[in-house]
Please model this.
Amino acid sequence: MEIRPCSGGAELRVFEELPERLHGSDPWFVPPVPGSVRALFRQDHPVQQAVSMTPYLCWADGEPVGRIASIRNQVHERVHGDGVGFFGFFDFRDGAAAAALLERARDDMDRAGRSTLRGPYDPTANHPVGILVEGYRQHPALLTTWTPPYYREAYEGLGFEGIRDLYSYELRKLPAVRTRLGGMVARGRRQGLRSRAADPLGTPADLDLLHRLFNETLRGEWGFMPMARGALERGFRDLKPVMDRELLRILERGGEPVGLALGFPDVNRWLAELRGTPSWFRLPRLLLRSWRGRPRRARVAVFGVQKEFQGVGAAAVLLDDVLEALEAYPDGGEFSWVQDQNRNVHHVMRFGGFPRTRVHRVYELPLTGARRREDAR
Model:
């Protein structure tokens, strides 16, 4: 086996398409939006202001059999200062390819002076995170990952330990949900809490509000990475063909913004239908589908309330308005991710009767520092 950095656009295309080469025959695998992974490695992408990445491919007998990126996240270092280096885009045919790729990422982070390797992050906490450990027999939601069961075995066989689980819940506004959450919603509305649709691409003030609320309401989350305004705007622009303002909510009390929810129509089922078609043909097909109508399902990816408004029904009001917006989607929606230690949200999900559907896991591996000691000699 040979591990080498990607050189040029052709190898980055192989890097992007490798998971489909490995897993495209599985009925639950969904390919990415064409070009979306390669775009992250271009110098003009906003994520490049936060991270330094080196993408690698693993080759065996002239065929690509694995990939990984070693990632140094300067924003994480500045905020947390915990000596963590990252890896992501980690896909492999078998344990031998996984071990060889991991060794390269470990070397990179060892040389960078990192004490711990954490991942997978594709490439930050504000992008797809973790591997699947529960809920394999369903399509992944937009900007989440699907990985086969043998990945978990490979990770743990390589010495990784799971450090955080991320939960997904099914969201539907059923009569039982209205009954269970009705009291909390009424309490919040008596406090003057209301949410409204946001227009981040048409109203700069809304983009500013969403940017501020994202960073203020989520900063207490484990591994939180502040979002740059430009990165948030780029995310909205990437999803503009299918964006639904009713799923982008700003929670207010007396005109003062106190929370946000960010949801997006889920194009992944459309993407699943495009497996086996030429990659150049997929983006036009997606755009054509978006002109004809919206997807049947959505994903709520961000949900945050200012700390001083937690426990007064604010979250219930915001959730109630999100559920109202989801009624336009025949197949409902997914709320993900919720970190395992977020007891308040898990309580609301259980109390409301929303079933847990999937679990993703983030892993860590301590670095020995052997490379640093060797270099010192």
Q: What stands out?
A: The radius of gyration is 21 Å.
